[in-house]
Known about the structure:
The complex is a heterodimer of chains A (about 150) and B (about 150). Chain A has helices at about 20-30, 35-40, 40-45, 60-65, and strands spanning about 10-15, 20, 85-95, 100-115, 120-130, 135-145. With about 150 residues, chain A is of the alpha+beta class. Chain A has a domain at about 5-20 and about 55-145: Hotdog Thioesterase (Thiol Ester Dehydrase, Chain A). In chain A, strands 1, 2, 3, 4, 5 and 6 form a six-stranded antiparallel β-sheet that branches. Chain A is elongated, with a radius of gyration of 17 Å. In chain A, about 40% of the residues are buried. Chain B is α+β, with helices and mostly antiparallel strands and about 150 residues long. Helices cover about 20% and strands about 35% of the residues of chain B. In chain B, strands 1, 2, 3, 4, 5 and 6 form a six-stranded antiparallel β-sheet that branches. Strand 3 of chain A pairs antiparallel with strand 2 of chain B, so a sheet runs across the interface.
Amino acid sequence: xPLNRDFVGRRFVADTPFLVGREHIRxxxxxxxxxxxxxxxxxxxxxxxxxxxxxxxTFLTAVALWRPVVPVHDPQLGLDYSLVVHVxxxxxxxxxxxxxxxxxxxxxxxxxxxxxxxxxxxxEYEFVTTGGEPVATARTALASRGTAA
Amino acid sequence: MLSAHMPAIIDYDDVEVGTRIxxxxxxxxxxxxxxxxxxxxxxxxIHWNERAAQxxxxxxxxxxxxxxxxxxxxxxxxxxxxxxxxVDYGVRFSSPVPVPDDDAGATLVVSGVVEKKxxxxxxxxxxxxxxxxxxxxxxxxxxxxxx
Lengths: 149, 147
């Protein structure tokens, strides 16, 4: 069944800001086997000019997944998540994410379109501090396999 | 001698279009995927449950696409000496990376080449990420802030 095009243009904002934790940065860096001292050792991060531990560039994945805003499970959208494949991802960072950042996550469904037998669901994310500072944007393309009309 | 943890000093003026970042191999094992499930919040069963992965037609458990993307970024952030050096990073996922239930896991081979020099000491690195001889990421580019 095709996805509901009425969702294009809708914007969703997380109710609760996401507090980026030091231990979360360490755990994420450990999971991707990144032993950069700037993500593990507070003194090293400060010596390099940062106020706290520095997150690896794809850490925002964890922010977006632990604070989900796009209603992928809303029956009105009509997405069968077992058919979903992640096809494209992009991050643009105005500055690195550091421990202590409190980020408000929002996302807009930018497009739903046919791509052969599949459909693409394009979401554009914004990560802004609770103080109003824009930190990063992201674009995610999910393919819904075989659902094109 | 520099320790493994000392940031590499890559100066913008020493980098040219065509400068290569030496190829590296990165190993991914099941344990890493389980850690990544927890750290990222992506608990999709195809990344940790063989039975479920085979049930949807996969050969077995596969790595998160985002794990592959994160791993490829390490080539660049280790080169620049700073996980905060990447200002823009985009990829397309072209094929899955199966991670067998053994000690060897799966090995990604990652290399990079500077394809553009921008203003403000930024460069664009084109990354090549292979598994078992095939490219698993396409259009994989990182814009990197150098000193």
